[in-house]
Design brief:
The complex is a heterodimer. Chain A is of the alpha+beta class. Chain A is 41% helix and 21% strand. In chain A, helix 1 runs parallel beside helix 4 (50-89) and helix 2 runs antiparallel to helix 4. At the A-B interface, helix 5, strand 1, helix 7, strand 3 and strand 4 of A face helix 9, helix 12, helix 14, helix 15 and strand 28 of B.
Chain lengths: 358, 798
């Protein structure tokens, strides 16, 4: 029996001393291997008488279990130590900077148009478009601007070369010709907005030869000036995200609307800083009015039956006001610093449900 | 249109403060652009008395003045030749900012003598061009009073933006009439009594235009025995206040009537007229030396007034120098006519000649006021210059202007959105000068006044009532939707533009928006610059051609960014290209340009010069985002001329060109001064087919339970063989079985024979009925090799 105790003591001591999985394996082989001490002792049991064999067998089995458990515990311990050593050796400097990712941006004009479409889309408007190179009829005559009308002279029109028949095409001076194209192509009810490029031969600090407008047109049997006010008040408040934004309508003149109204929003200029909201001052942002009966007639729509309103505003202007962009000309400069500063993230999609702007 | 408050009050009896007047004007549609209180800047300046003026001990031209400011006596050194003891002048104490120069006045010592302020000239005050001497005020001027008040400058100047439809408000009286209609006071009566003629006019007037519309009415009258001196102070002050220079009584009277009652007239020096006056079209070759000193060549489209000898004035635009009034003038002939708006506008535009008269005639004047204006002018001339007036000579007649429109009972509510009682509407219209009478069937029969040529129908009447009643009073009503939920605002083609835009930005490109016009020379490099697409009146010579491509703009932007120190850029734009001048010729393009390095250097590497495959990837991403069948898009090495001929390509869907990609041609880069490398793409979005309507439902998803198998093959093929030929052959071996073919290596080097290259592919096989056996895979491999060899003229690489 003392032999067994010696095996036990030696083996457990060797397990405790093993400093690697390899050393531990040697201990296992020395104890439990084919020629190991315990295996050999097991084989020697056959020479004993039955009583002694039973007692020695039980002892040996216990010893075998104890050694096996000890080996397992030692293996786990050694595994942990080895992993810890590996982890220690794998250490890197986590303060190293990450690789730069390309930073794309959406231009403020595109983003602003998306915002405008999101708002008017909610009110049942659809987006219409038209050509930039227009003829006299769509850009002027059908809009009740005859050739010698003073308003036509004030529009600073770009002209293309005169054709053989004496006519000359123009770059559209406003998005209003799309009103005409839509009314000629489609029967009321009509409810469209028209964002797009417009052109005027004017170039200074506050004018660009190309800029963007959004036009709106509603034609049905019953829309009146109250609706015009309701629609545009809601738009201004939603766009500028000022729930109590004062909106003022005052009489004005456009050849294609009657009655006509300019729309102002409230602002404050206290301390030289422009702030949109109730503040005692006013800022003109768009023109509007009830569609002139002659314009309806020019489009084959009976003004005795149908009526509605139209409006137009500058995209750059409302973008400048909303986002504090100081200079109109910078919109077309393609200066990367400007585009990154004033531009929008690609996934920043305006919607009325998800919020128009952050 | 400018007026002063006191001028306005000569027509409008009101106690309303200026703020209220401005507010009402704005809400009437007469936008007040500015209210300038000239008194504010002049507040520190006071009237003063020069007690003594002694020679300066150290300077011949200076005087040392003792000035009584009303509160103190101060010493001032003054260089003005007219400074003398006893005079009344204008004193500015130290600390005053001089209006003209913006300089701060300080106490100083001039040549050894202390000077504690300044005696001011009209020039320094910003009220005249006279800087020879200091201002001399009348001897009765009280001392120590505000200078502005003493000079009648404490009268705010209103600048009103009059819209093109309201020429009646280009006179102070029209503005006053609107304010009175809005209840802000009472319109004072106008003295329109005719001045009796004392003799028959020796000069007759004749209308001889071929076009009757050119001028339907021509009035004239002589005034003789007058004296033309400076106009009185009240008249000079009014003209000066609105920015006009007083010239002489006769000239000032016509200017005054232009702005007071919106009636431009002309006054000829009658002694210089030869014979009668004829109003006719100009004859070819005729010219006029105008009052502004310039010569104008005239043509038949212009209306002139001529005597027996020559053209004397350009009707409705400007008078001529030969018959202009001078200090020696003693006999005048007053002309009042009704010139056609269209011809007046055309004349002014053709001659590039703007004038207060043209501005008014081209907007349309009150036809019934022509004779009244003549009487007012006569009375003023007699009052200010003396003399006696002839009878009025007349050619033509006042054109018919009376017309009636019906304002239906419910129309104000129906169009304007607010119910204004008919009585109230009638009253508003009448206060504006309209005649309004209820009709038997309950509507209003309305006749606009002679000065409201802009009123053309019922909608105008609604506006008149509403603007006086107040737009503020119209209740805002929500716009009801036709459907409970909004329909999509964008159609499929519009929606995908947004997807393309945000896809490109997601790929790291920054969106630009650039002009639709570029220099014609640059346009030619990109296949454009056709004469039909050149602007006749460009803003500058380098913005004269409608662009045939977005790329020149992006290249220009890349150059400018590089000049600013940002050589690595990735820009894109979604916008128009103009193929011709038709609506169909305007194509919507997505174009992008990558310039310099793909990114900044980094310790993990990854920065490399941009290459054409980046641009190709962008182009394919655009087509994919637009919903195009990318897998069917074929690339070929036939780019347009602005690309590198060997490093660029065209993308097609069948025969249809979708776009281009590749390196920009080095000659184009050099021409646009862009340092390479630069790669670009252009995709014509209109050419990418829209997904079929209703194709939203996807085909059923078939998931094979059997593992896919990958096999690699390398082929030696002719060096010039397009890789796509090989890939297409490999894909075509068994369309059921082959799920993917990937090219993973392109090699040409020592182990590859000259004129050949090695292309290595991975072929993915996806069985659907059973796991592939080795024999099946082997059979497939043999078939693939055979077909690829046949298609490419290559061989399997050993």
């Amino acid at each position: 029996m003392n032999d067994f105790e010696t095996i036990r003591r030696d083996t457990l001591a060797a397990i405790a001393a093993a400093s690697s999985r390899e050393a531990l394996e040697q201990v296992r082989i020395a104890a439990l291997g084919r020629k190991g001490a315990i295996t050999t002792a097991m084989k020697g049991l056959g020479a004993l008488d039955p009583e002694a064999r039973k007692a020695a067998g039980a002892t040996l089995n216990r010893l075998k279990d104890e050694v096996a458990a000890s080996l397992e515990a030692a293996a786990a311990r050694l595994g942990e130590a080895q992993l810890a050593a590996r982890l220690a050796s794998e250490r890197v400097d986590v303060t190293l900077p990450v690789a730069p990712e390309p930073q794309g941006r959406i231009h403020p004009i595109s983003q602003t148009i998306d915002e405008v479409v999101a708002i008017f889309g909610e009110m049942g408007f659809t987006v219409a478009e038209g050509p930039h190179i227009e003829d006299d009829f769509h850009n002027f005559t059908a809009l009740n601007i005859p050739p010698e009308h003073p308003a036509r002279q004030e529009l600073d029109t770009f002209y293309l070369p005169e054709k053989a028949d004496g006519s000359r095409l123009v770059l559209r001076t406003h998005t209003s010709p799309v009103q005409i194209r839509t009314m000629l192509a489609q029967k009321p009810p009509i409810r469209i907005i028209v964002p797009g490029r417009t052109f005027r031969s004017d170039h200074d600090a506050t004018h660009s030869p190309m800029f963007h407008q959004v036009e709106g047109l509603v034609i049905d049997r019953s829309t009146h000036m109250g609706h015009l006010k309701g629609c545009l008040v809601e738009f201004c408040r939603a766009f500028f995200d000022v729930a109590d934004l004062p909106v003022r309508f005052r009489p004005s003149y456009f050849p294609f609307t009657e009655p006509s109204a300019e729309v102002d929003i409230g602002c404050s200029r206290a301390g030289g800083e422009l702030r949109i909201g109730a503040g005692g001052d006013w800022l003109e942002i768009l023109g509007s009015g009830m569609v002139h009966p002659k314009v309806l007639q020019n489009c084959g729509i009976d003004p005795g039956v149908y009526q509605g309103f139209a409006f137009g505003m500058g995209i750059e202007r409302i973008a400048m006001l909303k986002y504090g962009i100081p200079d109109l000309r910078t919109f077309y400069d393609s200066d990367l610093r400007w585009l990154r500063h004033y531009g929008f993230l690609p996934l920043d999609m305006p919607s009325m449900v998800g919020g128009l702007s952050r | 249109m400018k007026t002063t408050l006191s001028w306005l009050k000569t027509h409008l009896e009101t106690e309303a403060p200026i703020e209220e007047i401005v507010r009402r004007l704005v809400m009437l549609g007469l936008e007040v652009e500015s209210v300038v209180d000239r008194a504010a800047a002049l507040a520190p300046f006071r009237t003063a008395h020069v007690v003594s003026a002694e020679p300066h001990p150290n300077a011949d031209k200076l005087r040392v003045c003792l000035v009584d400011t009303g509160t103190a006596r101060v010493q001032v050194v003054c260089g003005a030749p007219n400074a003398r003891a006893g005079m009344r002048g204008v004193f500015a104490p130290p600390g005053t900012v001089i209006p003209r120069t913006g300089l701060l006045l300080k106490e100083s010592v001039i040549r050894g003598v202390a000077s504690n302020g300044m005696l001011c000239s009209g020039y320094e005050m910003g009220i005249s061009e006279d800087h020879e001497g200091i201002i001399e005020l009348p001897p009765e001027t009280p001392i120590g009073e505000g200078f502005a008040k003493a000079m009648g400058l404490d009268d705010p100047v209103l600048d009103i933006k009059v819209t093109a439809n309201r020429p009646d408000c280009l006179g102070v009286r029209g503005v006053a009439r609107d304010l009175a209609a809005a209840g802000l006071g009472r319109l004072r009566p106008l003295d329109t009594r005719p001045v009796p003629g004392r003799f028959e006019s020796p000069i007759a007037v004749h209308l001889a235009t071929l076009d009757e519309k050119a001028c339907p009415l021509f009035l004239g009258r002589m005034v003789r025995g007058l004296r033309n001196g400076p106009s009185p102070r009240w008249l000079q002050e009014r003209l000066t206040a609105i920015g006009l220079r007083p010239i002489s009584a006769l000239v000032d009277i016509t200017n005054f009537l232009t702005f007071d009652v919106n009636r431009p007239l002309h006054v000829f020096d009658a002694d210089r007229i030869k014979g009668d006056l004829v109003l006719r079209e100009a004859r070819p070759g005729e010219s006029l030396k105008a009052l502004n000193g310039r010569d104008y060549a005239l043509d038949e489209a212009m209306t002139v007034i001529a005597d027996d000898a020559e053209v004397l004035s350009l009707g409705g635009v400007i008078g001529g120098e030969s018959t202009g009034c001078t200090a020696e003038t003693t006999t005048v002939f007053i002309e009042a006519a009704l010139f056609d708006p269209v011809r007046t506008a055309a004349t002014g535009r053709k001659l590039n000649l703007q004038s207060d008269a043209r501005y008014r005639f081209e907007r349309g004047l009150d036809p019934a006021f022509t004779a009244t204006g003549m009487e007012m002018a006569t009375r003023l001339i007699l009052d200010l210059c003396g003399g006696e007036a002839s009878e009025v000579v007349v050619a033509g007649a006042v054109p018919a202007w009376r017309r009636r429109y019906r304002l239906r009972a419910g129309r104000i509510a129906g169009l304007g959105g607010i119910d204004v009682a008919q009585d109230a509407a009638k009253e508003i219209l009448e206060r504006l000068g309209f005649a309004a009478a209820p009709s038997a069937d309950g509507d209003l029969e309305v006749e606009p006044p002679s000065w409201r040529g802009d009123i053309e129908g019922e909608a105008d009447l609604v506006e008149e009532v509403l603007r006086v009643h107040g737009y503020d009073a119209i209740p805002a009503v929500p716009l009801e939707r036709e459907t409970a939920l909004p329909r999509p605002a964008l159609d499929a083609a519009q929606r995908r533009l947004g997807l393309v835009r945000r896809t490109l930005a997601g790929r790291g490109l920054v969106e630009a928006v650039t002009f639709s016009f570029i220099p014609a020379g640059v346009a030619a490099l990109f296949g454009g610059g056709a004469p039909a697409l050149r602007l006749v009146n460009p803003i500058s010579a380098d913005l004269d051609a409608m662009r045939p491509s977005i790329l020149p703009n992006l290249l220009d932007a890349a150059r400018r960014n590089a000049d600013r120190g940002f050589a690595d850029s990735a820009l894109f734009e979604i916008g128009p290209r103009y193929d011709d001048d038709t609506p169909e010729g305007q194509r919507t393009m997505a174009a992008g340009l990558r310039h310099g390095q793909s990114g900044p250097r980094h310790w993990q590497g990854g920065s490399r010069p941009v290459d054409l495959f980046m641009a190709k990837a962008d182009a394919l991403a655009v087509i994919a985002a637009a919903g195009g069948p990318v897998e069917n898009v074929q690339a070929s090495a036939d780019p347009p001329g602005w690309y590198h001929p060997g490093r660029a390509g065209t993308l097609r869907l069948g025969p249809k060109v979708l776009g281009h990609f590749g390196e920009v041609h080095p000659a184009v880069l050099a021409r646009l001064d862009v340092k390479g490398p630069a790669v670009a793409f252009e995709v014509e979005l209109d050419a990418v087919p829209l997904p079929r309507k209703g194709a939203r439902g996807r085909p059923p998803l078939k998931l094979s339970p059997f593992q896919p198998v990958e096999r690699d093959f390398a082929f030696l093929v002719p060096a010039e063989l397009p890789a796509e030929t090989l890939l297409r052959a490999a894909r075509g071996v068994d369309r059921q079985l082959v799920s993917e073919v990937r090219l993973f290596d392109v090699y040409a080097g020592p182990e590859v024979p000259p004129g050949r290259k090695s292309l290595a592919i991975t072929v993915v096989l996806q069985p659907e009925r059973a796991t592939l056996t080795d024999d099946e895979i082997e059979a497939f491999a043999r078939k693939l090799v055979a077909q690829v060899v046949k298609a490419t003229g290559g061989e399997l690489r050993g």
